[in-house]
Specification:
The complex is a heterodimer.
Chain A: H1 16-21, H2 29-38, E1 40-44, H3 47-73, E2 81-83, H4 90-96, H5 99-109, E3 113-121, E4 137-139, E5 144-150, E6 161-163, H6 182-187, H7 193-206, E7 211-213, E8 219-224, E9 229-231, E10 243-250, E11 254-256, E12 271-272, E13 275-276, E14 281-282, H8 286-292, H9 302-305
Antiparallel strand pairs in A: 1-8, 2-3, 3-10, 4-11, 5-8, 5-10, 6-7, 6-9, 11-12, 13-14
Chain B: H1 2-11, E1 22-28, E2 32-38, E3 44-51, E4 54-60, H2 66-72, E5 79-83, E6 97-103, E7 109-111, H3 123-131, E8 138-145, E9 151-158, E10 164-170, E11 176-180, E12 182-183, E13 195-201, E14 212-216, E15 231-232
Antiparallel strand pairs in B: 1-2, 2-5, 3-4, 3-6, 6-7, 8-9, 9-13, 10-11, 10-14, 12-13, 14-15
Classes of the chains: A alpha+beta, B mainly beta.
Chain lengths: ~300, ~240
């Protein structure tokens, strides 16, 4: 059990241009260029795959999520989301394990990817823009990405995904970099709010432009761990926006929760042992975890305790 | 006999042992490991810093070291610098850290120790001190005597910290803690404001006169600040 805490993602390496010119990314050169330069890239499944995957998921989830969607439409609850629906629904699992995605991610990052979390939405998420890298991240940095798949055509009024190209090059933030203490974070229901002012400032100072993702069904957006993204306010609550986000980590890293990672004197980083959806178990089993020799604390989240 | 020697020299290669290894680690700080290495008949190409099985950092052995070439009587680039990243996580492992030089064909792996024979046995302990989370991102240099010769000076800072302390040592004397707060306009790191200088007047430390002095990042004196040359104070 050897961690590689040195090699960076290929798309983030200082010698990216040399790798690119040498053809290191093969048929994924366009995606590599976009992810490196802009922090996102676009993909598309074949039409046959699109129909098979997307219609199935919507069909299965519609009756389950409908009551929550109706409550949200009446303003009685927040935006409904289904976390880790792959545990109950094979269709969600199947999307997360598409070979096209896995091959692409392997080529772009240079390590084996593994899906560790799925989120399904029936309507626009209306999330404040954020970097995923404060919620879950890795060391070496950058070995995490989000993959957003449109399960139906997305219109402007349905609260499309928004993102800020170039923002992936902002410094990675942690609770320690904001001087937060474990007490402060524990008392806040949504600790992401601590970071939002920094992101708003960064967008203003760097003149990042907000982009909307208005895809057709089956189109895919892959975003860099640090790309600022969120959900536009839903203008018309009668409109659905079926989508699936799958978050991927990559092999042989340390996995962390940066918004719970503090100065050494306050406990240091919070490590994760993420669930490997394909394997149906935690990435590092008990023996493997012991072999890492790590002495820091580890926090198990809901999906890590669950069994596929 | 002459013909046998010729045969032996040409066709029977001497048993390769790592006892023929020369070099090792010259500098171990929380942010940099450097040194040089040479093993006859083996093309050592890279050095790796590991904690147990985990790769922390690596580098090529490709720095020109004319002093080493002169010492060995062999031409080549035998120097290396391994950077320990400032952002390396503040984690601890129950493994020991070690440094290994490897050949280009990955057939040879040679553990490296400190070159200073008095400290070679402390290599693991010193590497452990360097990688300790409390010392992440510590830089520094001991400049020695000031041009006028009335004080000892240098600088040190830690990324993300306002000030740090260093400890000055002289053989047989208790170490002196020095705060690094003086402005140093010549230190131009983008992640520090330059208030990182330390100094001590020779007048305030008369008992050290005539002795060798050096500075460390830690109170125990395991992690020496890099310095260009040995500093021996003039006698009283």
């Amino acid at each position: 059990m050897a961690l590689n805490l040195f090699d960076k993602p290929l798309i983030d390496r200082p010698d990216f241009e040399e790798l690119f010119d040498a053809g290191r990314f093969g048929c994924w050169a366009r995606e590599a260029r976009s992810l490196h330069d802009n922090g996102f890239c676009l993909l598309e499944f074949d039409q046959s795959v699109i129909d098979d995957l997307t219609l199935d998921v919507v069909e299965v989830l519609s009756p389950i999520m409908l009551p929550q969607v109706q409550a949200w439409q009446r303003g009685q609850q927040g935006v409904p989301r289904l976390q880790d629906g792959w545990q109950q629904h094979f269709q969600i699992f199947k999307i997360s394990q598409q070979s096209l995605l896995l091959e692409c991610l392997q080529a772009l990052y240079g390590r084996e990817p593994f899906a560790f979390q799925t989120l399904n939405f029936a309507v626009g998420s209306e999330q404040h823009f954020h970097s995923d890298a404060v919620h879950f991240h890795s060391y070496p940095h950058g070995f995490m990405c989000g993959v957003w798949i449109a399960l139906e055509d997305v219109s402007r009024d349905s609260g499309p995904l928004i993102y800020y190209p170039g923002s992936h090059r902002l410094p990675y933030l942690t609770a320690a970099s904001l001087g937060l203490t474990p007490d402060q974070v524990a008392k806040e229901e949504h600790p992401q709010t601590f970071f939002e002012e920094c992101w708003r400032e960064a967008i203003k100072n760097n003149d990042y432009t907000q982009h909307f993702f208005l895809p057709k069904r089956g189109q895919i957006l892959i975003w860099h761990a640090n790309l600022l993204h969120g959900g536009e306010q839903v203008a018309n609550r009668e409109l659905s926006r079926w989508s699936q986000v799958t978050h991927y980590y990559f092999a042989d890293c340390l996995y962390t929760t940066p918004l719970m990672s503090f100065d050494y004197q306050l406990g240091g980083p919070t490590l994760r042992n993420p669930f490997d959806i394909a394997r149906g178990c935690r990435r590092y089993g008990d023996n493997l975890w012991k072999e890492t020799g790590l002495l820091n604390r580890i926090v198990l989240n809901k999906s890590q305790r669950s069994i596929h | 006999m002459t013909r046998f020697n010729l045969f032996k020299n040409r066709f029977i290669r001497p048993q390769l042992t790592y006892k023929m290894l020369q070099g090792g680690l010259e500098t171990v700080t929380p942010t940099l490991l450097s040194g040089w290495v040479f093993l006859p008949s083996v093309d050592l190409s890279s050095v790796k810093f590991l904690i147990g099985p985990h790769l922390v950092s690596q580098s090529f052995i490709n720095h020109a070291r004319p002093d080493v070439e002169a010492h060995l009587g062999v031409a080549g680039c035998f120097g290396f610098n391994i950077v320990i990243p400032n952002d390396f996580p503040l984690v601890e492992f129950n493994y020991e850290p070690w440094v290994v030089a490897t050949s280009a064909d990955d057939m040879h792996h040679v553990n490296l120790c400190l070159l200073d024979s008095r400290r070679a046995q402390l290599t693991t302990q010193i590497l452990q001190a360097a990688i300790h989370p409390t010392r992440r991102g510590l830089f520094g240099h001991f400049d020695g005597l000031s041009p006028i010769g009335d004080l000892l000076h240098g600088w040190s800072f830690q990324v993300g910290k306002k000030f740090v302390s260093v400890w000055m040592h002289a053989d047989g004397l208790p170490s002196k803690e020095l705060s690094c707060e003086h402005h140093r306009s010549d230190i131009d790191f983008s992640f520090h404001n330059g208030n990182c200088g330390f100094s001590i007047s020779l007048c305030s430390w008369p008992e050290a006169l005539g002795k060798e002095v050096w500075v460390s990042f830690d109170e125990e004196g395991l992690l020496k600040l890099p310095q260009h040359e040995v500093v021996i104070l003039p006698p009283a």
